[in-house]
Design a protein that fits this description.
The protein has about 230 residues and is mainly beta. The chain has one domain. About 5% of the residues lie in helices and about 35% in strands. The chain is built from two helices and 15 strands. The protein has a seven-stranded mixed beta sheet.
Length: about 230
Amino acid sequence: MLLSLNTACQKEELTFVSGDLQIDVTAGDHWLHDFRLFMGIDRKNPPQFAIWTEDLNGNYIETIYVTERIATESWIANGDNRRKEALPYWCHKRGVVYDDGLYLPTKDKPIADAFTGATPKTDAIFKCPSNAFELPVVIKAEFNQSTDFNDAWPKDAKESDANYSGGQEGSGQPAVVYSAILSSEDSCVTLKLTGHSSPDGTDGNLYSDVESLDTGLEIVKTITVTRK
């Protein structure tokens, strides 16, 4: 169960009732991104992201944390756009299909509060008990910014284009995925970039080519997992 969000220090801290596993997420230079609202007004948006565990065969175990907008479909003025391009790798790993055939949680069927929270505005610490799963375990994280367009991932790409990423309010650059194996012999591991997920959210594949990304690689600086 999620216990508290501590903003008294520079790092926000999300803590379970008890836990010896600490995940430190250090924000990169592009953690906050200008999102155009209306009449030329920009809002500094933090990324959407999820952190979860898998076994060594790639089977999903459990979500450690996912941002509230993804978990509850609480996007601002999203209309009928379910934002399936936001975190498709995590969504497909969970394997939960909702009434509309998508893998994204809905307002009617959100993810439990114990695993969710508002997106931290800066560096964050997440704590949970490691005895919730057997070691070794794979810890993965997926991060995405909305409207993070560049020359390779433009806002005017069409649905039939290979670089389509959800349209003018879509992702732009696709979500990036990080991963590390934590064994019983490890006291600390650092998650490494392993690729990006589906640009338009239509599949759960992982794509290793990240040469077309720029600011998408600057959302997060480091992700470390420490056993206390």
